[in-house]
Specification:
By secondary structure, this protein is an alpha/beta fold. It is built from ten helices and eleven strands.
Amino acid sequence: MSQRLAAAIGMFDGVHRGHRHLLSTVSEAARSRGLHPAAVTFRAHPSLVVTPENAVKQLTTAEERKRLLLDAGMEEVIVLDFDSHLRNMTSAEFIRMLHERYNIDCLIVGFNNRFGCDREHNLDDYVRFGRAEGVEVIGATETPDIKVSSSIVRRLLEKGEVEKAAEALGRCYRLEGKVVGGKRLGRQIGFPTANIEPESGLSLIPASGVYAAFVTDSANPAVRHKAMLNIGRRPTVNTGHDITVEAHLLDFKGDLYGHTLSVEFAARLRDERRYPSLESLAAVLATDAAVTRRII
């Protein structure tokens, strides 16, 4: 890597509106200094190393995060592995490493960002450490029109509030996974479903319930299908305890087994409920389908 960079560092999970405000500051700083805009992120959340028993559920995979950062105008995305060596670096050592190894000449720090094992330091300290290493450190302002963080988005999704989460993200929340075999009971009542297994066990699955969604097949990414999606234990047809993610694509016929599907959550329709018969469930699903068509 030979080009000189202006960069921000963070997990950037979700690449939400607050992140994009910071990234726009990076782009402006790079342009005014003749540098190239970049983001420094981590392959996996630091909680996997620090508290693996309570690892944070993720809004984006590393691959999706990189794509979103590039879409936000970054020319370089530096992905670091948060290991014991990185964990034990001081903030001064970390700034030196970014400068010497990755050609970062300007570091933009978010208004509430802390890094290094000596987390008691603040922006003034980072400016001082950077000056000693030949790195200009500047602070970014808070997002002016909305209070948002990855934690806030997670809490909204855990309550099923996908529309509020979309407002914070600036787009619908997205979950990707492979279609695996199921019991095929949906076919019996006219609503065949694709049983989606998230590609990462750390991906955040929204609260149980029925949702209106868009579904895209990686084999045909140009087509977005309207779908209704159930998250839960399917109490009418299932006595198990495993949470499933099942999508019924409206006006679609075909075999999706083994395909990778991307789900974008548009709205939450209702709670998951147990119905007395498959016939009554089918009637409710027909209503759900009509509501989904009206919403999206």
